[in-house]
Design a protein that fits this description.
The complex is a heterodimer of chains A (144) and B (178). Chain A is mainly alpha-helical and 144 residues long. Helices cover 57% and strands 0% of the residues of chain A. In chain A, helix 2 packs across helix 3. Chain B is α/β, with parallel strands linked by helices. Classes of the chains: A mainly alpha (144), B alpha/beta (178).
């Protein structure tokens, strides 16, 4: 039991490692804003991590940049423009809505509608078949 | 004979996926189009690698085409492309400026000493801020800046003579060779 607890504790401790070596903001609201901003920026060296998750040098440089821009009083939009001017929209984990991303943004709704459409068709066809010939509902072979 | 739709449809979907993956899997996700191409090159003024009392800046090269090569001694691709950089410089068509990115000064100087120095000047970007202004994310990266101060071309990764002849050299002709 004791070992089990130790294992659980060690497992949880993995979450506690801080990648970010920089000092925290004095103001908790600013710290929260900083953490939100760096979570939404992609690390370009290690493309499936945000700059909050990555310990690449570039990621830490970009965190420093975000911190400095915040301390210079820049808004979220200004900070994200600073990044996209240099690295393109790819650096954003939330791509902006523009003509070439319409399909990307509407894909979940389109897929859902398509799925509903197919489900309705299938159900309607089965209902029609069942009305025409109730025996099809029992087409499972009887094993008993 | 008419083939039922439920046989044809999966075949069409499959063909669509083949096309999608054929294109998608051949793209290199490491190559991100730089938003900088076509825009004014970011200005910088940094310490010279060889002499901390001297400055190397983008203004020094304004008015003619020049190359900016981002390199570091910790970068394996930089070593691979070094011979090509030397060959480009030997062509004597335009000045090549180095941006030494997050590196150790002594190591960088030794590198140039041992492998040869293709640069007219090397800026020492110790804290990586200039590299961020240029949208650098993986050395080596090479930029061609036109006489009008705009970025004409960016190459990510080790440059080869084939890349140089295909992507860079044609852009030099109409600009007039510095």
């Amino acid at each position: 039991m004791r070992y089990a607890l130790l294992m659980v504790a060690l497992f949880l401790a993995g979450q506690a490692f801080a990648i970010d070596g920089g000092r925290a903001f004095e103001d908790p609201a600013q710290q929260e804003r900083y953490e939100r901003l760096i979570r939404d920026l992609r690390c370009l060296v290690c493309q499936n991590q945000s700059i909050a998750d990555s310990n690449a040098t570039l990621a830490s440089d970009l965190r420093r940049e975000v911190r400095d821009l915040m301390e210079a009083g820049q808004s979220d939009e200004q900070i994200s423009r600073f990044m996209t001017e240099r690295y393109g929209d790819f650096v954003l984990y939330r791509p902006p809505l523009r003509p070439r991303t319409w399909l990307l943004w509407s894909a979940p709704a389109l897929l859902l509608l398509g799925g509903i459409g197919i489900a309705v068709l299938v159900i309607a066809r089965r209902a029609r078949a069942a009305r025409a010939n109730p025996a099809v509902l029992d087409e499972e072979p009887d094993q008993t | 004979m008419r083939v039922p739709l439920r046989f044809v449809l999966p075949a069409i979907v499959f063909a669509g996926l083949v096309v999608f993956f054929f294109i998608g899997l051949r793209l290199n996700p490491g190559e991100i189009q730089s938003p900088l191409v076509g825009k004014a090159a970011p200005a910088f003024a940094l310490e010279s690698l060889g002499d901390p009392t001297r400055q190397v800046g983008s203004a020094d090269f304004a008015g003619r085409p020049w190359l900016l090569n981002v390199w570091a001694t910790w970068c394996a691709g930089c070593r691979d492309e070094h011979e090509t950089l030397m060959a480009i410089t030997r062509q004597n068509r335009l000045p090549m400026v180095g941006l030494n990115w997050r590196d150790d000064r002594a190591l960088a100087l030794r590198w140039l000493d041992q492998l040869g120095n293709p640069y007219v000047a090397v800026a020492f970007d110790h804290d990586g801020r200039t590299a961020i202004d240029w949208g650098v994310y993986g050395a080596p990266e090479t930029f061609l800046i036109g006489a009008d101060g705009r970025v004409l071309r960016k190459h990510i990764g080790a440059i080869t003579m084939a890349v140089w002849e295909r992507d860079f050299a044609p852009l030099l002709a109409p600009q007039g060779e510095g």
